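We emphasize that the prediction below concerns an isolated chain of 165 residues; any contacts that depend on oligomerization or on bound cofactors are therefore not represented. The input was used exactly as deposited, without trimming of termini.
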Amino acid sequence: MALPFYFVSALAAIDIDEVTEAQANSVKLSDQLVSLSDKLLEKAVDRGRNTDHLKDLNDLHEKIKHLRLILEPKPKDKENNPNLKDHQGSETIEIGETIKKALGEPVFPQDALDAALQIDKQLDSFKQDNLIDVKPLKDVLAQLEAELRKAINFQKQWLNSTKPN
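Result of the prediction step, given as a token string:
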């Protein structure tokens, strides 16, 4: 017996809500990471750390900002993409195209998790220096990794639930 359409839609909506929530939490945590790394870099500059140390910290800061961009890329707009065309007239827009337009660029939590794991390894090398306290960054990064794993699992569940039998 086939499930009624509204029942299947409700299940898919729950899954996609969970994916969206996990991704939103990931964005918030990545914002915290950017803020923490920014403060860390400022402190190092204020304390007059050596150039190599500042380069390493700046590299870390850039990787964290890149991670943030992976999680929430700029939406497609005319300023960033002058070739983007408006839909004019009475043409029909497919539902998938409407969703893509609303969401902007797709988010790939696995790419973000890979970047987070690389940052985690880099933080371990800073830990050995004892020049900076990486614990706040490690704590937020651990939470972010957990949220990304959740998003990946929910995304897999959602994709599996939308496959035809």
